[in-house]
Amino acid sequence: MKNHATANDHEFPEWILGVIRCPNSGTCLSLASAQLLSLVEDRHGRSPMTNKIGRTISAIPTQALVSQDQRWLYPVIDGIPCLLPDEAIPLDFPFEFADPQDR
After folding, report:
1. What is the pTM of this model?
2. Measured between alpha carbons, how far is 53 from 3 in angstroms, rounded to an integer?
3. Domain limits at 31?
4. Where are the beta strands (DSSP E) in the chain?
5. pLDDT in tens, the chain (103 residues)
6. Contact in structure between 87 and 74 (CB atoms under 8 Å)
7. Is residue 64 within 8 Å of 37, Cβ to Cβ?
8. How far is the C-alpha of 7 from the C-alpha of 103, rounded, in Å?
9. Rounded to whole angstroms, how far apart are CA atoms 61 and 41?
10. How far apart are CA 25 and CA 35, in angstroms?
11. Which of 26, 63, 66, 90 shows its CA 20 to 30 Å from the CA of 42?
């Protein structure tokens, strides 16, 4: 039996999360929690967010990977992480209500 980490409807083999790294910071990546994605969605609703190159994000992903340093969010599209550095969403706002695990 294989170990899998679950992000909504898609599964990622845990070994992949141990191998891939954030293209911007070089830190480990993990599945973004529902609470973190909710905070990002709320922030986006108040003031549209942009990706690293300044392009406005049309919608916050329902699944994402987050860098260990909590600075970058990478969308997961149809179960495939989009790890293009320019497509990363910078998390440069305070998480007033974030769970300590999401910091």
Report:
1. 0.79
2. 35
3. 4-102
4. 4-7, 10-13, 29-31, 64-67, 72-77, 80-81, 89-90
5. 344 454 445 666 678 888 999 999 999 999 999 999 999 999 999 999 999 999 999 999 999 999 999 999 999 988 889 999 999 999 986 654 444 454 4
6. yes
7. yes
8. 18
9. 9
10. 23
11. 26
